[in-house]
Amino acid sequence: MVRRMRVQVLILVGLTLFTVFSLTPIVWALLISIREPIDAFSIPPKILVEPTFRYHVDIWLGRGFLGFFLNSAIIAAGTVLVSVPVGTLAAYALSRIQTRASRSLLMSLLVVRMFPHVLLVIPFFVMARSLEMINTYPAMIAAMVALNQPFTVWLMRSFFLEIPRELDEAAYIDGCNAWQAFWNVILPLARPGMVVTSLFSLLLAYNEFLFALVLTGTDTKTLPVAIAEYGGEDLNYWSLSAAGAIGIMLPILTFMLFFQRHLVRGLTIGAVKG
Amino acid sequence: MAFLELRKVAKRFGSHEVIPPLDLAIEKGEFVVFVGPSGCGKSTLMRLIAGLEPSSDGEIWIDGRDVTDVLPKDRDIAMVFQNYALYPDKSVYDNMAFGLRMRKTPAREVDERVRAAARVLGLDALLERRPAQLSGGQRQRVAVGRAMVREPKIFLFDEPLSNLDAHLRVHMRTELVRLHRQLGATMIYVTHDQVEAMTMGDRIVVLDHGRIRQAGAPLELFRRPANAFVAGFIGSPAMNMLPCVVEQHGTELRSGPVTIPVPPPLRAALKPWSGKAVLFGLRPQFVGLAAAPGSGTLRLTLDAVEHLGTETILIGLHEGRPFQVVVPTMVGISAGSSIFATLDAGRGHVFDAATGDLIAHGSDVDASVPESIAGLGHVS
Amino acid sequence: MASTHRRSRLDRRRSLWPFVVPSALIIISVQIYPLAYALYLSFTDFYLGAASSNFIGLQNYVSLLAQDRVWSALRVTLSLVVVSILIEFVLGLLLALALYKLVRGAKLFSTLMFVPYLITPVVAALFLRWVFASRWGLADALIASMNIFPPDWLGAPSWAFVTLVVADIWQFTPFIMLILFAGLQGINPSLLEAGRIDGASGARLVWHVILPALRPQILFVLAIRLMDAFRTFDSIYVLTGGGPGTATETMTLYTYMLAFKQLEVGRASAMGVLTLLVVTGLILMVISVVYRRDKGAF
Predict the structure, then answer these.
(1) Which of C112, C129, C174 lies nearest to residue A231, judging by beta carbons?
(2) What whole-number distance in Å separates Cα of residue A205 and Cα of residue B202?
(3) A9, A95, B50, B375 — which has fewest CB within 10 A?
(4) What is the pLDDT of residues B181-217, one digit of tens each?
(5) How many CB atoms lie within 10 A of CB A71?
(6) By the 8 A CB rule, do B279 and B326 touch?
(7) Contact flag A116-C272 (C-beta cutoff 8 Å)
(8) ipTM of model
(9) Residues C194, C243: contact at Cβ < 8 Å?
């Protein structure tokens, strides 16, 4: 009994230490963002200072971050609107066809996912430039769909696999062709899966840096590119960019709260980061 | 021409032949049961009829039309699945109406038919519920209702009762048989349970490794099995099979130390088999008990005694194989004791030990003595 | 095989394959085609801004392989990948076991620890930058307050490497932890009971019972982390930019520099292809292990 208590205490201490390690940089940035540079960097660090939100207001309203957010949102939404419906169709077929051909197709999707992005971004840039599509939404959306499609197919497929095939067959017997069975019977049941897949795809596009750095310009700049430019050495900008960074993080924390239940599945299939 | 005809229908998965070419004819209004052990191809055969699986060879005809290459939706069949396959997001009403709506049936007619079926099945009060809010038995009924409203040419049932508990299963069995009588519809029913097959079917088709081993009325299969497989599969407890050698020009069967005299009517059939190995099959109901060993009695040491209330099953060993005897309820006999079993050889069957094919039936297999009483005279 | 089947409208495959077409077209046009194009570019002297380009065969590859900078990038990449993943794996496993053993609160802890993994990578790198920045960073402030002279986290070659490893650990340990924790929860408790009855406990139980049971998850996280660590870009770009000098320049970063700073697109493509070859080699290794040990782990 005493031994068990001791083990629990030990575990608690260890987990707390790592949690502190995980959260400290975030809390530190939060502190920077709500304080004047003078207070933020006094040595030893001051903890209790009257917070100010003027940098938060300034970065979003005065420095155009609202516009960058809009760009990020348009690109992420465009990605989801193209990638998820198309991927859902393919995923349904690949969940129902189980032949050597479909298995090798799935495996090749996995291989495609492994390509180094830096190799892909070069031809994308060259092609977008010759098509005069640098600094446009479609170019960025196309790139995000490319990165996203294998993940979408795999994740949606895992949801379709949970829907018993007998439902398709019951629909066939009830008078459906393949499309009608999919549309009337299976798709409504896969709706939760589509929501989860969409949110993961949204996150992937929202977080993307390399492609955004290369393909976007003044009109289409996304949040990650903008904040990277604000990371500046100049101490006077720290509070401002910390405010921006914290703001960019907030939608993701919301996402986490909503999707805890599906997190593991999404990660096992997609390992979102890419 | 029969209502449903399979002509040389075969099914292969890759190089694996699940169903070798097979012929079968089913008449309008029949209740036909496909029965066999798991993996015998009975479900595959049903899926071929439904069109859920393309056949590799042969033709399928329904009501005078070649439907071999017709999609399931255009075959005018309905199917009840083992797990019911109800649409989980649709209400009971919508589940039943779905097939009619897909066929563009006018809304009024849909409503009438759904409500009529619901009345017959006692689902009136449940029409707004979702499948998840129903009990197993209710789901079963909705699945049947979904098939009924369509008024299809053929009903297909794929082990529909196997997910129900024993009590409900017996109840639904009679209900389905009554429904068949009421609708007069053609029904095909797949099961692995020979009791279901015996109690429900007008005709039973016994399948093994994709082959039809015998097709016929339940009692015909019980009394005149065409081979050792059917003999062993139909009937409970299973038929005893004694490996024997035919001796004395077909007048005796020898099984280990025991010699069984062959009744005169059988001798002619066994004569050519003299010196060869055969299986002598005798149902446990046709084995009696004797007080002392006699000619042709088996001495059995009881391995187990199962008291079923109405009767008692004695399970002994003969030559290392189980040998069962059914006697009217009898207390005071227990495992470990020895008994002497007398064989009513006239009710036995002789099969080729190598192929399992029938050599001859006993002369008394059709005698209309209730089986449970048949052994009475021998009890000592 | 197909010849034993006659063609039938009933064959479900025939009605379902068309569903795959849009996705296949997308993959071909935005994945396969660009890659083929990159491969083509790698055989040219394509220079951004030049009017035309010439086919020069393997020249890009030859001159790259002769560069010390390329070999140094390979060394940096491999050591970064190996060191980070090793530490992350051990830490992640310990954390997963701790969460598994914890009587209550596992959900809260795992959620909190998971935050760094989901944050936008650039933002995560900035957070760390504010920790490791010289003089005003949190790390320096804390160390200086103890009257120790702090190291130059981002400016000294070896410390820059350490900082990148810490950054990787900070972001990716949670991923390994969560997948292994999920795997642990999937282990049949009777398996652990049986192990305990057989007298195994503590480390022996972990080694002989838990790790073998976790094999699919372990191979999975290692495979994924290998692939992703190889193409890490965001955090290095933000934290060190490959510096000081080229001390922390990885293959990915050098490819980027070649293409978008030196505008040598042809040579950059060749560098990208080389990266792909190295990654493919590693992945094939992992896949062959995964498939030999556990068919269908993915």
Answers:
(1) C129
(2) 64
(3) A9
(4) 998 999 999 999 999 999 999 999 999 999 999 999 9
(5) 20
(6) no
(7) yes
(8) 0.87
(9) no
Query: In this structure, what token pair is assigned to residue C115?
Result: 């935050």
Q: CA-to-CA distance for A254 and C284, rounded, in angstroms?
A: 37
Tell whether B163 lies on the interface with A, counting CB pairs under 8 A: no
**A242 vs A238: CA distance, rounded Å:** 6
Nearest to B315, CA basis, from B240, B222, B234, B233: B240
Chain-chain contact of A167 with B87 (C-beta, under 8 angstroms): yes
Contact A169 B78 (CB under 8 A): no
Residue B55 vs residues A185, B12, B20, B34, C15: alpha-carbon distances, Å:
26, 8, 11, 18, 16
Answer whether C98 touches A (CB < 8 Å).
Answer: yes
CA pair distance C255, B341, nearest whole angstrom: 90
User: What residue of A is the nearest CA neighbor of C110?
Assistant: A19
Q: Do residues A119 and C276 lie in contact, with contact meaning Cβ atoms separated by under 8 Å?
A: yes
> Residue type for B338, please?
S
Contact C7/A at CB under 8 A: no
Residue C9: list chain B partners with CB under 8 A.
Answer: 54, 69-71
Residue of C3, C5, C13, C14 to mutate, interface with B, max B Cβ within 10 Å: C5
Sign of CA pseudo-dihedral A32, A38, A39, A45: positive
Per-residue pLDDT of chain C (298 residues; tens, 9 = 90+): 334 456 678 888 788 999 999 999 999 999 999 999 999 999 998 888 777 888 888 889 999 998 899 999 999 999 999 999 999 999 999 999 999 888 888 888 888 888 898 899 999 998 888 888 876 777 777 777 777 777 777 878 888 899 999 999 999 999 999 889 988 888 888 887 887 777 767 778 888 888 888 888 888 888 888 888 888 899 899 888 887 888 899 999 999 999 999 999 999 999 999 998 988 887 777 667 756 654 444 3
Q: CB–CB of A80/A198 below 8 Å?
A: yes
* Rounded Cα distance, C298 and A153, in Å: 14
Q: Test C6 with B71 for CB contact under 8 angstroms.
A: no
Taking only the tens place, the pLDDT of each residue in A168-191 is: 999 999 999 999 999 999 999 999
Torsion of CA B150, B152, B154, B158, to 10 degrees: -10
Residue of chain A minimizing CA distance to B156: A173
- pTM value is 0.87
Tokens, residue A138:
């479609």
Contact B159, B192 (CB under 8 A): yes
Residue B26 and residue B186 in contact, taking contact as beta carbons nearer than 8 Å: yes
C24 Cα to chain A: minimum distance (Å): 8
